[in-house]
Amino acid sequence: MPDNDSGIHTIGVIGAGVMGSEVAQVFAQSGFDVVLVDVTDQALDRARQTIERNLRFQRMLGAQRGLAAPPTVDRAAVLARIRFTTRLADAADADFVVENVTEDWNLKRPVFEELDQVCKPDVVFAVNTSCIPITRVGGVTDRPSKIIGAHFMNPVSLKPMVEVIRGFHTSDETVQTMLDLLAAIGKEGVVVADSPGFVSNRVLMLTVNEAAYLVHERVADATEVDRIFKGCFGHTMGPLETADLIGLDTILLSIEGLYQAFGDSKYRPCPLLKQLVDAGLHGRKSGRGFHVYQ
C-alpha cells in the first residue's frame, strides 16, 4: 500500500499502449493497485510483456540514457498489483483515473463519457495528452472541475517530471491532488495553463518537425541531426531519436493538432514524417522510424 493519506489506493489506467503500460508500471511499483484497461486481450498481453521487459531492463536503460533508475524491484509483486481487463466498467473500483487513449478526440470523447458514468463522482480524471485541450475534455463530463492534464514523458519510469495542465474549470483541489499523487510516485509536477500543445509539445513538435524537414531536404541524415543535438547541446537524445521513442504516428497526430488549432504554417507536417507513418514505420515500437532498431 502506498504511503499516502489521500484515500487514493487504486489507480485506473485507461489504454495499455506504450505510455499506458509505463504509467501502470510506475504506479504499481509505488505500491498502488492498478486496473489497466484496453479494448482487446491482445493489447493487454502486449502490455504485460512490455511491463515485464521494462522491469527487467529499466536500470540498464536508465544508465544508457543518463537517467536515474529506480531501485531494483520485485517484478512478480509489481505485476500482481496490476489487474488487466477489457471492461471499462472495472474502473469503477478506481480512486483516481489516468487516461492514455490515442491522441484522437473521436476516440477519447466516448471513453470519458463512459468513465463519467462508471466512476465515483469524486474521482479525478487525469488526461495524459500532448495536444487535446483539457477544457474540451471537461466539457463532455459532469465533473469539469475534476479534469486535469497529466502529460507524462516517455519513458515514464525514468523521467522525474510531469507537465500538469489546468483546464478552464479545474479546481485548486484537483491540482493539489494531482501534485500530491505525483509526489507519491517520486515525480514533480509543473503546472501550466491549457493551450494547444501546452509548453513541452508546442516547442518539441516544432523541433521534431523541423529536424524531419532537414532529413527530407537532405541537409543531413537522421544520425547526423541527432549527433549535433547531443554533442553540441548536451541533449541525452536527439529530436529524431525522441520522435522514434514517442512513436511517429503520435508525433504526426500532435503536429496536425497544433496545425489545426493555430492555423499557422509553421506547424505544417513534414512530408517525410507523413510518409513514414503511412508506411507503418512508427519508430521503436515498429522496429524502424527515422532510425532502425533490432
UniProtKB/TrEMBL annotation:
Positions of the record's site feature: Important for catalytic activity: 151
Gene3D superfamilies noted in UniProt: N-(1-d-carboxylethyl)-l-norvaline Dehydrogenase, domain 2 (1.10.1040.10), NAD(P)-binding Rossmann-like Domain (3.40.50.720)
Domain 3-hydroxyacyl-CoA dehydrogenase C-terminal: residue ranges: 197-293
Positions that bind NAD(+): 15-20, 38, 103, 108, 130, 154, 285
Domain 3-hydroxyacyl-CoA dehydrogenase NAD binding: 10-194
Superkingdom: Bacteria
Pfam families, sorted: 3HCDH, 3HCDH_N
Pathway: Lipid metabolism; butanoate metabolism
Entry keyword set: NAD, Oxidoreductase
GO annotation, biological process: fatty acid metabolic process
The protein's name in its UniProt record: 3-hydroxybutyryl-CoA dehydrogenase
Species whose genome carries this gene: Spongiactinospora rosea
